[in-house]
């Protein structure tokens, strides 16, 4: 049975979004619609519709007479995204602490356990392990916010997180990966920014319903991350 056009368009969107976020399509790479349609098995029209949608979300750009291209990854955009995420995540975290129940607490503990079992970015050169860590890291932060109420803030948070994940994979794959693994300074900053220790402190503050401590740790966590990415860019 043939899929409806809307289903094919959504599948094309999800296919491209995953490729872009995980840097399998590198920043600024040209996007050839016929080739992508063939690779995905979804055809040209759904792929074109998906690219238009991704253009509106700033994952791709349309250049006159040159077609679509993956959007660039820049340090300025990263700092902007991190600042926006902190504002939104702080508001959502306050809501979640106010409204969370026992099931919310249990989900946080479970997501933290999964994150702790994943190999941290500083400890592996295996990209599959890196993708597992990224998925569990995002799951942990999502669990912290799961009891929040604002649908719009959660929507914006998801969009910003997708862009930040793209920056993360761009910095931890390809040539940047080799530079990272060859730099003791970057590895040390990665452990501070992305390691389990700080996530554990954040979890403990949230479960204790210590809102101000949790927000302070969230701000500190974001600061670690910004400084780490600053150093990655400086050595790029």
Automatic annotation (TrEMBL):
The keyword Cell membrane does not apply. The keyword Coiled coil does not apply. Keywords: DNA-binding, Transcription, Transcription regulation. Residues 80-224 form the GntR C-terminal domain. It comes from the Bacteria. Pfam families: FCD, GntR. SMART domains: FCD. InterPro entries: GntR_C, TF_FadR/GntR_C, Tscrpt_reg_HTH_GntR, WH-like_DNA-bd_sf, WH_DNA-bd_sf. Gene3D superfamilies: GntR ligand-binding domain-like (1.20.120.530), Winged helix-like DNA-binding domain superfamily/Winged helix DNA-binding domain (1.10.10.10). GO terms for molecular function: DNA binding; DNA-binding transcription factor activity. This is GntR family carbon starvation induced transcriptional regulator. The lineage of its organism: Bacteria, Pseudomonadati, Pseudomonadota, Alphaproteobacteria, Rhodobacterales.
